[in-house]
Amino acid sequence: MRFPGWEPGDLRCVTGCECGKSLSKMPPKLICLFLCALSAPKLSGGDVLLPAPQSISILSTNMKHFLTWSPVIVQGATVRYSVEFQGEYEREYANGSWIPISECSLTTATVCNITEDISATVAYRLRVRAELGATRSRWGTMKGFFNRVTTSLTPPLLRVLADGYHLLVELADMGPAFQFRVLYWKKGHESRVQQKVMKEVNSMVHLDTMEAGAEYCVKAQTHVEAINRSSSFSPTHCVRAQRDTSVWLVTALTSSAGFAVAALTLPFLTWKISKIFQYSCCPVAVLPDTLKESEPPTQLILHGSEEAEKCDLMVVVMPSEEVLQLWIQKTL
């Protein structure tokens, strides 16, 4: 195994012995090997054989915090890491003690999720140590402090739907620490913006009842009460409500009924108007009852004495035109 600072063929111990130098009458190589063997237990538990992790930093977005560092590379071996943190309480009331993060103890990863351990809005210090077997490096400590109030807050992801005349919004869940402030308005009426604050977003949320055919717009932002900070607003999403189908249906039914009535009454009206014009232009004269033609009897039976003179009865039928002219002359 090769460690930093050691070169091949360099058999030098912490005692200062170098091969080739005589300290007594014993062979030099034997003396060096003996002294190095005596000092070996001290080296096995020392902190100078592994370099401490470098480039320690924190990535914090939407109240999720991750500690990262650069790997310690040893050829042919797997280096493990342990992480500890120190909060305000440990510094001021627990003699500057450090608390191990169990999820990141002897891990081979170079990233550690410290979200659950950063549970207060105070300044934290963090450190990482490399381990290889019984050999440990010095602690590598992150420069400065970390406070979760500096986390980066991003706008929420949302989906806006128009279900009939209902304005609905669906927001991506970002954890229990987040609230959502949703603004919505009818397009063209930006001065009358409405607001709704939500803490739980397990399903679709009903915002408003829309006017038929109108367009509505929605945007939202996140807010974390624990740090009293809000994100920027999301892009604006707009949807349009469906048109009023009931009005169209009533109009269509009314039109159909009107057409059917017109189709049925038009022939009757045409016939009636033609009759009125016919009567106005060519009136029909009505004969009085005295001038009306009666059906002659088939046989006349005369009753009288046998001596009475028998006469032939003759009925003269005049044409209707002559009768009409005669009646007009009499009336004039």
What fraction, in percent, of the residue positions are helical?
Answer: 10-25%
What overall form do the CA principal axes indicate?
rod-shaped
CATH class descriptor of the domain at 57-150: Mainly Beta
Question: What is CATH's topology name of the domain at 57-150?
Answer: Immunoglobulin-like
CATH homolog superfamily of the domain at 57-150: Immunoglobulins
The CA-CA distance between the termini, in Å, is 153 Å
Radius of gyration: 57 Å
Q: Spans of 5+ residues with little confidence (pLDDT < 50)? A: 1-24, 32-48
DSSP strand (E) fraction? 25-35%
N-to-C SSE string, H for helix and E for strand: HEEEHEEEEEEEEEEEEEHH
> Major sheet, described briefly?
5 strands, antiparallel
On the 0-100 scale, what is the average pLDDT? Answer: 79
Q: Counting H and I runs of at least 4 residues, what is the number of helices?
A: 4
The beta-strand count equals 16
Helix/sheet category: alpha+beta
Annotated CATH architecture of the domain at 57-150: Sandwich
